[in-house]
Amino acid sequence: MRVVLDHCRETGTMASVVSGDEETYTGYIRQVDDLRATMETLDFFGATEGKQQFALRDLSLVELETNEEIMYRRLGEAQLKLL
Predict the structure, then answer these.
(1) 3-60 per-position pLDDT tens digit
(2) What share of the chain is helix, strand, coil (3-state, %, to 5)?
(3) Residue 14's domain spans which residues?
(4) What's the domain count of the chain?
(5) Residue 27 CB coordination number (10 Å)
(6) What is the CATH number of the domain that holds 19?
(7) Are 5 and 52 in contact (CB under 8 A)?
(8) Which of 28, 59, 64, 81 is the most exposed place for a label (fewest CB within 10 A)?
C-alpha cells in the first residue's frame, strides 16, 4: 500500500482510498510514512476540501485513474479556468 501511495505522491496522481469505516475519499496524497498517509481531499465539485490522515493498516483499497478520479480532476481544472 505504501509503495502505491508513494507513487501517487511523487507523480501527483489523484487517488481514491477506502478507509476502515468504508468511507471513500478522493484527492492527492501529500505525505506518506511507514504508518500513515495524508491526503488533500476534494469535494464533489473538485475543489480542495481539507486534509485527511489515514493509518495505512486501515486502508482497504486504493484506486487510481478510474472514471471517478478523472471526473474530479476535470472539475478541478474547470474551476481554475473560471477563476
Answers:
(1) 999 999 999 999 999 988 889 999 999 999 999 999 999 988 888 899 999 999 999 9
(2) 35, 40, 25
(3) 2-82
(4) 1
(5) 25
(6) 2.30.30.100
(7) no
(8) 81
